Amino acid sequence: MLEATNDVLLTRLFKGLALVSAIAAVGVANGQAPTTWKSVGVGGGGAFYAPTFNPFNSSEMWLSCDMSGLYHSTNTGQSWALTPFTTIQTGPMSPHVQFTSSASILYDVDTTGGNMTPVKSTDSGKTWKALANDPTGQGAFYLASDPTTTTRLLVSNYSTLFFSKDSGATWSKLVAGDNSSGVVLAGAHFDGQAITVATSLGIYVSSNGGASFSLLKTPGIPSTENIVSFASGKVGTVTRFFAVTLKAGNIWGGIGGDNYNAYASVYTLDYGTAKTWTKSVTGIPTGTYPFFVRMARNDISDVYLAGSCDAGNPIVLKSSNGGKSWANSLITANNQNVITGWQGASGDRQWSYDQLAFGFTVCPTDAKRAAFTGYGFCHLTTNGGTTWQQAYVDPLSQHPVNAPTPKKKSYLGIGLENTSNWWINWSSPTSVLAGASDIQLIRSTDGGNTWGFNYTGMSLNSSYQIITGPTGTLYMSTSSAHDMYQSTHLKDSVIDGGTGDVLTSTDQGATWTKLGSIGHVVMGVALDPTNAKRMYATVAHSSKGGVYVCSDITKGVSATWVRLTAPTRTQGHAFNITVLKDGTLVATYSGRMAPGFTDSSGVFVSKDGGTTWIDRSAANMHWWTMDLTVDPTDATQSTWYTGVFSGWGGAANNKGGLYKTTNRGVTWTEIWTSDRVGSCSVDPKNPKIIYATTETQGLWISTNATNASPTFGLVGSYPFRQPTRVFFNPNKAGEVWVTSFGNGVRIGTQSSP
């Protein structure tokens, strides 16, 4: 997740996005950039929230991701498409996509720019537009719509819940909490003029279509508990409510499913006939913690609970008798009733990887269809919980129920990619490695079609760079710290405790062993072309970070690493390392906050093997420098490009852009101003073509990059907001691979000039 930025940076960001319409996608206009992108991988690197079934078509689903993506399936999760980031973005607090009485009119919350803006779609989710009148001031924590009309809405900021009966044109305040705990919108029931709104502050009812609300005083839920989740259904004249409560003092606006330990109880009420809420806990096992309760609105018998348990696995319970008793619906032991992907009992990851329900839903019109999401995956049922099925890899890759999930298999992705990938390496046309966070490393042996964890010797959280030596030996930088040098990983406190090493493989990544021992976060690796035994690595640590050298890599695990002299100004946050053909070292140091940005970043050059360093940083590189790219078409290796991020709250503001030098950093020119540029890649066949990656503004291209003032245009076909790096497949002309911070790997083919 991205930290908040100040108004200046946001203004700059929106100006950058405005360039999309002004520049009109130069690459696409010239027929260069790919027009389609294939998503590949196995997923599992982020978290998913708010799965939703379309009540008009139960095969259609939506779900949100903490990495900003809104995913859409039209075939019950057998494949997924990412909604373009320029259309809408989502996050952990995004609500379920809200349906109305019209299949084309939907509501949601858009998190673009770090805001939480209520939005409306009138074309079934193809486009979204902000509500004209937003009472939350772009701070919408919850949003719910009346499924029987197109006009009635509920929306809240952290502490105040509002109601509208005219599609958001006007609003009335329904209830306000305090600034300490705020208000949770647990759910709502709409029944003509009767409206019931369940919140953490109580249940509010209206009998006049929302003209006025009053507190429902039905007893049964003690004051020591607060409602966190609410569900309702109606059959004939019977309206049945369910509520999950948390212990008072453990609830706040925006609370998520990872706070299940505060679970108190489950209650039910037949509204209008029963005098009191009654507990509905028969059959709920000890050590099980429901967080969500869901049901179809046309069924009062079939009800589901979802959450976690003491074993650290996701749980789903079901009642088929209106809450009189509950039974386990999701039986994870030996995957008894679950068709699995690569996660499951005995699999590459156990059920404890997913851990819990971050999101849970039941189709509003079909109680047999339900889905839950957690740390990386989506699972669903279409038969009322008799069996469950993974929905994150191709069904051809999945494994049968009541059987251990096998390890080290390969899987075909279906577009549900939430992984942060950093690097692509080809050791042969068919053997491909993708460095990743959270899922460590993924490997393909068929050229990138299917992927898996078919390797040994890599156990840390992240792999950041993988290079191939002259004899085919692979070298990889590894770390227990993920998301390095993103905005959440700039402080020593989140980096210094990390560990890492350089690993090596002689069998195309099937087995890995340590090359010596470093024991701190390793970011970059580079071989010395002037000495086949020498390798350099960059290490992140406040006192032990910097550039390290290994003088004899042939010693393997017995090799030693020595930390070189630190360049002036630097404070341990080393990033890139490149060794030029003449032995010159070029290193970048990235951002550091203590607590604000320190003057410790930039580009540094050594002509004597790291004994001394020259500061070759442009003024704007002193705060948050990212990748340095050496132009592969320049035989003299004098042309470099460097991406720079803007910081916030001080001297680091407004420094972002892409910078170019043609004299090895003696002088630099900013060739493209953008808020945060992470990296760029020069087409090795054509130096006029450069792809640039950004933090939140997508993938950009220039087709006249050799001009003194090149122009860049958004690659509109690439749907994700934060690509990280671009790689050109050395085995297939024109094939472009893009890694990303939260959307895995995408492959496209650019056309000839």
What does this structure look like?
The protein has about 750 residues and is mainly β. It folds into 3 domains: about 1-40 and about 420-455 and about 645-753, no CATH class; about 40-410, 7 Propeller (Methylamine Dehydrogenase, Chain H); about 460-615, Neuraminidase (6 Propeller). It is about 5% helix and about 40% strand. The strands form 15 sheets. A 5-stranded mixed beta sheet has the order 26-30-29-28-27, with no helix packed on it. The radius of gyration is 27 Å and the shape is elongated. Mean pLDDT is about 95; it is low at about 1-30.
Chain-wise SSE layout:
Layout: H1 7-23, H2 26-29, E1 38-40, E2 48-54, E3 57-65, E4 70-73, E5 81-82, E6 98-99, E7 106-110, E8 117-121, E9 129-130, E10 142-145, E11 153-156, E12 160-164, E13 172-176, E14 185-191, E15 194-199, E16 202-206, E17 214-215, E18 225-235, E19 238-247, E20 263-271, E21 278-279, E22 288-295, E23 303-309, E24 315-319, E25 327-328, E26 338-339, H3 351-354, E27 359-363, E28 366-373, E29 378-381, E30 388-390, E31 410-411, E32 421-426, E33 432-436, E34 441-444, E35 451-452, E36 462-468, E37 474-479, H4 492-495, E38 502-505, E39 513-514, E40 521-527, E41 535-540, E42 546-550, E43 562-563, E44 574-579, E45 585-589, E46 602-606, E47 614-615, E48 625-630, E49 640-644, E50 657-661, E51 669-672, E52 677-682, E53 690-694, E54 699-702, E55 713-714, E56 723-728, E57 735-740, E58 745-749
